[in-house]
Amino acid sequence: MTHSSKLGLDPSAVRAARELARIAGQPIVDMARSHTTVSVERAVLRLAGLDGADSDGMPWVNRLVDAVRETTGLEHGVALPVWDALAAGGYPGLAALARDAAAGKVKFRLPEGRDAVAARAAASGSLAQGFAAIDARRREREALIEATSDPPRPWIYLIVATGDIYEDIPQAQAAAREGADIIAVIRST
Predict the structure, then answer these.
(1) H/E stretch holding 185
(2) Are residues 124 and 183 both part of a single domain?
(3) What local confidence, expressed as pLDDT, does residue 1 receive?
C-alpha cells in the first residue's frame, strides 16, 4: 500500500527528521533490547497462543510468567525456559505446562548448549505462527481499507470521558450510530 503525504511535507525533510529521531532514540532501543518486563513476557506467551485462565480467573500467561520468574528470573525472558520445559516434560502445549506450573509441578531452568538451541527453535516456530496470524489480519485490514477507503473529510471526532465506563459505552455507541468517524473513550488520565 502506498501512501502520499496528506500534510504536503517535503519528503527529504521527513527523511532527515526520521534519521535524527533514529539517532536520538538508539540509546533507548539498545537499553530496551537488553531488558524485559512482565508485560512483554506475557505478550510473548499470548503471541505463541496461550490464552484462557484458571478457575480463579487468573490468566494462564500470568501464572506461567510468575512461575518462570520465581525459578529462573526474567532477565533472559520466558521463551527458553518455557520451551525447554515443554520438551523436557513432554507437554502437548503451553496450556498444559501452565496448569502444571501453577500447581508447582514444573521446575524451569535456563537451558544451555543443544537444549538452548532446541528451545529457541521451538519457541521461534510457535511465535512464527502468532506473527503469521497478525500479518494475515493486517492484510485483511488493508484490503478492507482499500475496499471502503477513508470517509470524506473533515472527519467527525468525538471524545467520551465521563469517568464512568458504564456511561461512556452507550455514549460512544450513540456517537457511532450518529455518524462519528473516530471515537476516543478515555478511561483515565
Answers:
(1) strand 182-185
(2) no
(3) 44
Q: What is the pLDDT of residues 70-128, one digit of tens each?
A: 999 999 999 999 999 999 999 999 999 999 999 999 999 999 999 999 999 999 999 99
Give the end-to-end CA distance of the chain in Å, rounded to a whole number: 35
8-21 average pLDDT score? 93
Q: Which of 85, 92, 94, 84 is nearest to 121 (CA)?
A: 84
Measured CA angle at 64 (ends 59, 67), to 5 deg: 130
Q: How many CB atoms lie within 10 A of CB 24?
A: 9
DSSP string covering 136-171, please?
A: HHHHHHHHHHHHH-PPPSSP-EEEE--S-HHHHHHH
Whether 104 and 139 map to the same domain: the answer is yes
